[in-house]
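hiii, so i know i said id send this last week but things got crazy w the move. better late than never?? heres the sequnce for the chain we talked about at the cafe, plus the structure i predicted for it. fair warning i was half asleep when i ran it
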Amino acid sequence: MPYRRTERVEARLADNRERILGAARRLITEGGFREAQVGAIAAAADVATGTIYRYFPSKAELFIEVLRVICERELNVVSAIAASGGSASERIASAVRAFVSRALRAPRLAYAIIVEPVDPEVDLVRLEYRRGQVRVFEAMIEDGVRAGEFPPQNAAVSAACLVGAFLESLVRPLSEHSFALEEERREVIEATVEFSRRAVKGGPTP
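okay and structure toks below
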């Protein structure tokens, strides 16, 4: 007769997995991927180091799962704004403001998501996330073009340029973790939002 796990065993295994993921998320939030070593994750999750490898074959697999959950949450925030009421210009500005504001409030986590060097397989999740962001902004730009709010343009290219620009605008501040002052954070947020507005509303170059 094959062995069948009891509900209690299943619950314990699921709890261990969630504790490992939660510990990894906390360490990444506090210090980036560099600080999220397997030993530190095991200690934070109160499990043996070997236990982590029962659930995740490698550290990269663990990071992939953590990053996917974080990226999905951030993409949902922007998607909800895109689906809300208002003009395309207002929604784009709100989405950019929300993204940049959230990044500057959690600079080490944002640095890990956007900038920090990672294994190639982990970086694939990051690229998927960026493509998701581009699709959300592409839809808003198409809305603006249809409404006559924006000039005719290639929405896919414009969205890729826009997402690339506001991600790049965060590289230096996130690398330096220098935005302790609210005034400095506001300056970066508003400058990025204003650039984003101009980028999609400007007419063709003469």
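btw The two ends are 78 Å apart (CA to CA). thought thatd interest u
miss u guys!!
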